[in-house]
Amino acid sequence: MRGLFALSDEAKAAWKVELAEERLAELEELAAKGKLTSEEATESQERLTNSLQVAQDTIRILSEKNPDAAARLEFRKEEINSKVRGVATTTKKGNEQENDRNGQGPVPKR
């Protein structure tokens, strides 16, 4: 709902980055609890990457009007990208190790 009130380019870009940060926090929480499969992590990574691409488009527009704000948001966006990749990689490795311990081997791809 807050996104509806984001009228300026800076507010729109900030809102999109904040949403991605919230999704990342949820993803990290699920991973920490061991409730995230590698498939879910990959799907979440793809969704977040797509969301961040939309944010990038708004940041690009913002950079023409307010380069400092655009740079701050770009930095936050890149931090999120990095963390999402880390969660996905860690989850995949953790699931592979768990399968190896259980004698199941790698999980087949669908």
Structural class based on helices, strands and sheet pairing: mainly alpha
The structural domain count equals 1
Assembly category: single chain
Q: Approximately what portion of the residues adopt beta-strand conformation?
A: under 5%
**Secondary structure tally: strands:** 0
**Percentage of helical residues?**
over 70%
Mean pLDDT: 82
Q: Taking Cα atoms only, what radius of gyration do you get, to the nearest Å?
A: 17 Å
Q: Counting H and I runs of at least 4 residues, what is the number of helices?
A: 3
Element-level helix/strand string: HHH
Catalogue the unreliable spans. none
How far from one another are the termini?
36 Å
The dominant shape is: elongated
Major sheet characteristics: none
Key phrases:
mainly alpha, 110 residues
Q: Could you characterize the architecture of this molecule?
A:
α1 packs parallel to α3 and α2 packs antiparallel against α3. The protein has one domain. It has 110 residues and is mostly helical.
